[in-house]
Recover the amino acids of this structure.
């Protein structure tokens, strides 16, 4: 199961996050998302635990717990496109096919 972990302290390392979850079972992978420019952690990450029962225990125990004096958010990860993809599947996404192109620069160069 993929687990979302939010509100992480910016100084937290992946090894520390892994140790936190290993109390509840085997951790397959840990990834803290890093900003490409500043190289600082963005305050959230993902943990993968193959055993769903262990993952659910970790979620229940760690959600709202304090890590470096910050209450972290822990829940089951959802698809990156979850909301939009589901709306599209339900036929709730409306397309405006009558739109006229806007903006742009169409000046031609040369003679």
């Amino acid at each position: 199961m993929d687990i979302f972990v939010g509100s992480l302290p910016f100084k937290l390392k992946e090894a520390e996050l892994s140790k936190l979850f290993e109390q509840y079972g085997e951790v397959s992978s840990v990834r803290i998302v890093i900003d490409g420019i500043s190289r600082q952690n963005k305050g959230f990450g993902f943990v993968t635990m193959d055993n769903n029962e262990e993952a659910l225990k970790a979620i229940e125990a760690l959600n709202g717990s304090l890590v470096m004096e910050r209450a972290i958010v822990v829940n089951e990860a959802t698809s990156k496109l979850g909301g939009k993809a589901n709306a599209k599947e339900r036929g709730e996404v409306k397309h405006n096919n009558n739109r006229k192109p806007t903006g742009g620069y169409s000046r031609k160069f040369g003679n």
Notes: Residues 65 and 79 are 24 Å apart (CA to CA).
